[in-house]
Amino acid sequence: MTSTPSAPFGLTYSAAHDTVRVELSGDLDHLHADLLLAAVDEALTVHAGLGHLRLDCAGLSAVDSSGLAALLMVRRRTGGAGADLHLDARTVQLDRLLEVTGTLEYLTAPAARPQARRRTGRGPARGGPADENQSAAPPSGVAEPHV
Fold first, then answer.
1. Which of 23, 42, 59, 112 has the smallest number of Cβ neighbours within 10 A?
2. pLDDT for 85-101, tens place per residue?
3. Antiparallel, parallel or unpaired: β 10-16 and 52-63
């Protein structure tokens, strides 16, 4: 069996105010997922107090399971820093992958703000005010995404 070579992966990022925008291109796959994580770690370190991380996904040609795992890790890291993750200009293929894996809502939900975490006494909120009165466990039959 022959495998298709990966398309080169590219990252270009810019910062303005409390927002970092990262343009992604090529294949976000097992060969390149660590590059995205390294760029996000750098952005979170250099831009302390970051409010928004915007990943422009228009240039992505493919995302494999390692790429999906990297996106989930990006969500964890931005959420932990109190920043919102935005997946802008998602391709049809990326949307389909996120829908099939049940990760679309998780990856596009706003991050919990530190004051919300203190008020509820729990870890990061998963949604909004309606979640504050619900248990921390997902509804029956719904699994939370794991990497």
1. 42
2. 999 999 999 999 999 99
3. unpaired
